[in-house]
C-alpha cells in the first residue's frame, strides 16, 4: 500500500475537503483518465484496490499512472477508550481529493478497454468519477 517513507511530523491536523481542484485537472501523462466529481478522502487501500482492478482488467497491458498519493495520516483511538488522554496513533493514510482532480491515467490500450477498466476502478473508490480523454 502507498504511504510516505518519511514525514516531518508523525500526526497532522485533519485534511481539508472543500473547494475545487486547481491543479491535476488535465490528463498529462496518458490518453485516458479518471476524474473525481466530488470531494472525499481516498485511503491508500482504496487506491490500491482500484489500481489492481485496472491492471487485472487490462491484463497488465498499457501503462497506468496514479496521480494521487496518500500522504495525510489519520489517527484513531482504540475501542472503549475514554475521552482525553491525547491523540490516537496513526491508523491509515489518505489523499484529500477535490472535485475535478484526475486520479488515474492510462495509455497503451484501446478506449473501450480503458473505459471499462476505469469504470471498474470507480466502483472501488468512495467518490463519484467520470472517464475523460485527452
Automatic annotation (TrEMBL):
Disordered as annotated region, ranges: 1-20
InterPro entries: Ribosomal_uL16, Ribosomal_uL16_bact-type, Ribosomal_uL16_CS, Ribosomal_uL16_dom, Ribosomal_uL16_sf
Single GO term (MF): tRNA binding
Keywords assigned by UniProt, alphabetized: Ribonucleoprotein, Ribosomal protein, RNA-binding, rRNA-binding, tRNA-binding
Family annotation (PROSITE patterns): RIBOSOMAL_L16_1
GO biological process: translation
tRNA-binding among keywords: yes
Domain of life: Bacteria
GO cellular component, as recorded: ribonucleoprotein complex; ribosome
Task of the protein: Binds 23S rRNA and is also seen to make contacts with the A and possibly P site tRNAs.
Family: Belongs to the universal ribosomal protein uL16 family.
UniProt-listed PANTHER family: 50S/60S RIBOSOMAL PROTEIN L16, LARGE RIBOSOMAL SUBUNIT PROTEIN UL16M
HAMAP family per record: Ribosomal_uL16 (MF_01342)
Subunit composition and interactions: Part of the 50S ribosomal subunit.
The protein's name in its UniProt record: Large ribosomal subunit protein uL16
Gene responsible for this protein: rplP
